[in-house]
C-alpha cells in the first residue's frame, strides 16, 4: 500500500492504490487491519487535535472502505479478469466442465473415453454408479457429479432448442463455441457410429435428384436435340441406390447401438429436418427410375410405404409449430426447415405418378400452406425468432427448393405447367438468382457431408426449368435449362470428388460430432461482453462498500467537518 503525502488536506482524502486483488475473505481481513493501522498512525501523529482527527477517522472508516481512481480500477479489473481466465479457461476436451476446481478432476478423468452415455438404454445415473470411489480428507466419498457441478442425468435428456443456438455455430450448427463444454472428450477419436450424422442422407439427396434430372434431359422434348443417352440416368440411379443402402444400414446401426445420440439429433433444430431426407430420397429414386427397369405405372403401395413416415413427421413437427411451446416455429425456424415442406411436394409428384391425384392435391395443399408460414417467418424475421448466426448463410440455398418442387408437383397433378406452376417457378428462379449474386455467402466454410443437401435445390430448379421450356419452347428457356443443369451437375461432381478425397485420402469426412455432446445447461455463469462503465460498477460491487456510495458519504463527511470547524 502507498499513501499520499501527509499534508493537512491529504489527511481528509485517502487514496489507496491497489496492486493486487486478493481473494474475497483475505481482502476484507487485510483491509480491516490496514484501516486500523492507518487510524492509529494518524492518531499518534496528530495528538494536538486528537478529538477532531478521531471523529474524522471514524467517519472515514464508516463512509468508505477504499477509494480508487478510474485508471487504477481499470488496471485492477483487467488483471482480475486475466487471472480468472487463466484459472478457469481450461481446454474444452470433455474433461473439464466450466473450469471447476481440481477437486473434480478425478470425476472428469473417469469419463475419458467412456461413450456409454449415448448407448441405447443407458443413462448417466447408471454410468455414475460404475465410477470409482475417491478419498478426500480421509473420508471415502463417491464422485457425485451433481454436487460437483459437473454433468448429471439431466444433461443426457432432451436439450432445449434454444440451447443449440446458444452453444453451437457453423453452417449446420455442428461446431461448439469455445466457451462451451461437452460431455465427451474432444481430443480423442470417437466411435464411427457416433461420428456418423443424419446429414449423410444429403449425399443421397444430391445423387437421387441428379437421376431425375438426367432422366428429364434424356426424355424431355425441350432437350431432345441433345440426344442424351438414357444410360447416364441408369448409372446415376444405381449409384444413388447403392449410396442410399449403405447410408441407411449405417444409420440403422447407429439407432440400434447409440439411440441416445439419435435422440440428440432429433431435438437438434437443424438436423431434425434431415429425418425427412431418407423418405424423400426413396421417392426421388421411384420418380427418377430409368425407363429400362421401371414399369409405366408404379404400384400405389410404393407411395404408401414411403409417404407414411413423412406424414408421421408432419404431424409431429407441424404440431409443435402450431401448438407453440419452446419448439414453436419462430423459435426453431431456419432455412433447413424447408426440407420438412419439400417432402409433401415430392409426395404429391409420386402420388400423381401412381395415379392418386386427389392424394397429391391434398399433400400439395399441406405443403403450400406451411411453405408460406416458413417463408414469411424466415423472410420477415419475427421479433421472437432466434437470430441466425452468420455461419448459417450457406443454408439459404434451401429457399429455392420448395417453390421449385411446388411448381413441378402442380404440373404433375394437373398435367400442364399453367399459371400457378409458373408463379412458383418464377419465385424459385428469382431466389436462385438472388443467391448467385451473393456468392460471398458460400465462402470460407469447411467442407461437410451436409453440403450435399444444398445440391438438390439447384437440381430441382433445373428440372422445373426443363418443364417450363416444354411449355414455352424458346431459345432463352432452353438455354436457361441447359445452363442450370450444367451448374447443378458440376456442383454434384465437385462434391463427389471432395467427398471421396475426405473419406479415403485425408480421412477427415467424419470428425467428432460435437453437436450431440453439448450439455443441457451451460456449466457455470454465462459471460457476456461488458462495457467499461459497467465493468467498473461490477468490480466496485465486490468491495465491502461501492465506489459511488463511498464518494458521496466522504463528501458529506467533509461538509460536516467543515461545519464543525
UniProtKB/TrEMBL annotation:
Alphabetized UniProt keyword annotations: Cell membrane, Ion transport, Membrane, Transmembrane, Transmembrane helix, Transport
Short name of any one Pfam family annotated for the protein: SLAC1
Record membrane topology: Multi-pass membrane protein
Region feature (Disordered): 22-47, 79-103, 130-158, 546-565
Any single GO CC term annotated in Swiss-Prot or TrEMBL for this entry: plasma membrane
Biased composition (Basic and acidic residues): 32-47, 79-89, 555-565
Localization per record: Cell membrane; Endomembrane system
GO biological process, one term: monoatomic ion transport
Record-annotated membrane-spanning stretches: 192-214, 234-253, 274-294, 300-318, 339-356, 362-382, 394-413, 419-437, 449-469, 481-505
Main localization (coarse): membrane
InterPro entries associated with the record: SLAC/SLAH, SLAC1/Mae1/Ssu1/TehA, Voltage-dep_anion_channel_sf
PANTHER family for the chain: GUARD CELL S-TYPE ANION CHANNEL SLAC1, S-TYPE ANION CHANNEL SLAH3
Family classification: Belongs to the SLAC1 S-type anion channel family.
Protein name: Guard cell S-type anion channel SLAC1
Source species: Forsythia ovata
Amino acid at each position: 500500500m502507498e499513501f499520499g503525502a501527509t499534508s493537512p488536506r491529504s489527511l481528509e482524502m485517502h487514496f489507496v492504490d491497489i496492486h493486487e486483488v486478493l481473494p474475497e475473505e483475505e481482502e476484507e481481513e487485510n483491509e480491516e487491519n490496514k484501516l486500523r493501522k492507518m487510524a492509529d498512525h494518524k492518531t499518534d501523529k496528530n495528538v494536538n487535535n486528537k478529538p477532531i482527527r478521531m471523529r474524522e477517522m471514524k467517519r472515514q472508516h464508516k463512509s468508505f472502505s477504499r477509494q480508487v481512481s478510474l485508471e487504477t480500477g481499470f488496471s485492477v479489473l483487467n488483471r482480475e479478469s486475466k487471472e480468472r481466465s487463466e484459472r478457469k479457461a481450461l481446454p474444452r476436451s470433455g474433461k473439464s466442465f466450466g473450469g471447476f476446481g481440481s477437486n473434480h478432476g478425478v470425476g472428469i478423468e473417469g469419463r475419458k473415453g467412456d461413450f456409454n452415455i449415448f448407448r441405447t438404454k443407458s443413462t448417466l445415473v447408471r454410468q455414475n454408479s460404475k465410477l470409482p470411489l475417491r478419498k478426500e480428507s480421509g473420508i471415502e466419498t463417491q464422485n457425485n457429479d451433481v454436487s460437483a457441478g459437473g454433468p448429471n442425468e439431466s444433461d443426457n435428456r432432451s436439450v432445449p432448442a434454444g440451447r443449440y443456438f446458444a452453444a453451437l455455430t457453423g453452417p449446420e450448427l455442428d461446431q461448439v463455441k469455445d466457451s462451451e463444454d461437452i460431455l465427451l472428450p474432444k481430443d480423442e477419436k470417437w466411435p464411427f457410429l457416433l461420428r456418423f450424422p443424419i446429414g449423410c442422407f444429403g449425399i443421397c439427396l444430391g445423387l437421387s435428384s441428379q437421376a431425375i434430372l438426367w432422366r428429364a434431359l434424356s426424355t424431355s422434348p425441350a432437350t431432345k436435340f441433345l440426344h442424351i443417352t438414357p444410360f447416364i440416368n441408369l448409372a446415376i440411379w444405381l449409384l444413388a441406390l447403392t449410396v442410399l443402402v449403405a447410408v441407411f444400414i449405417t444409420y440403422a446401426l447407429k439407432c440400434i447401438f447409440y439411440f441416445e445420440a439419435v435422440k440428440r439429433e432429433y431435438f437438434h433444430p437443424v438436423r431434425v429436418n434431415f429425418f425427412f431426407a431418407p423418405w424423400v430420397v426413396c421417392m426421388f429414386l421411384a420418380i427418377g427410375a430409368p425407363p429400362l427397369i421401371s414399369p409405366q405405372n408404379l404400384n400405389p403401395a410404393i407411395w404408401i410405404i414411403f409417404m407414411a413416415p413423412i406424414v408421421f413427421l408432419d404431424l409431429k413437427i407441424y404440431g409443435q409449430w402450431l401448438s407453440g411451446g419452446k419448439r414453436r416455429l419462430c423459435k426453431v425456424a431456419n432455412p433447413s426447415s424447408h426440407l420438412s415442406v419439400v417432402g409433401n411436394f415430392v409426395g404429391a409428384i409420386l402420388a400423381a405418378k401412381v395415379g392418386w391425384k386427389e392424394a397429391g392435391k391434398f399433400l400439395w395443399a399441406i405443403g403450400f400452406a406451411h411453405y408460406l408460414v416458413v417463408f414469411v417467418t424466415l423472410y420477415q424475421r419475427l421479433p421472437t425468432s432466434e437470430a441466425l448466426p452468420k455461419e448459417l448463410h450457406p443454408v439459404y440455398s434451401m429457399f429455392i427448393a420448395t417453390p421449385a418442387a411446388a411448381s413441378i408437383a402442380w404440373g404433375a397433378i394437373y398435367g400442364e405447367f399453367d399459371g400457378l406452376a409458373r408463379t412458383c417457378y418464377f419465385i424459385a428462379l428469382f431466389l436462385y438468382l438472388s443467391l448467385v449474386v451473393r456468392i460471398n455467402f458460400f465462402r470460407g466454410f469447411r467442407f461437410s457431408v451436409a453440403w450435399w443437401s444444398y445440391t438438390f435445390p439447384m437440381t430441382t430448379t433445373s428440372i422445373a426449368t426443363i418443364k417450363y421450356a416444354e411449355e414455352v419452347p424458346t431459345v432463352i428457356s432452353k438455354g436457361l435449362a441447359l445452363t442450370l443443369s450444367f451448374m447443378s451437375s458440376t456442383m454434384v461432381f465437385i462434391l463427389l470428388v471432395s467427398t471421396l478425397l475426405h473419406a479415403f485420402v485425408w480421412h477427415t469426412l467424419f470428425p467428432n460430432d460435437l453437436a450431440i455432446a453439448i450439455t443441457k445447461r451451460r456449466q457455470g455463469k454465462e459471460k457476456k461482453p461488458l462495457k467499461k462503465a459497467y465493468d467498473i460498477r461490477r468490480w466496485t460491487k465486490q468491495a465491502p462498500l461501492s465506489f459511488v456510495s463511498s464518494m458521496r458519504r466522504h463528501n458529506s463527511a467533509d461538509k460536516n467537518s467543515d461545519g464543525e470547524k
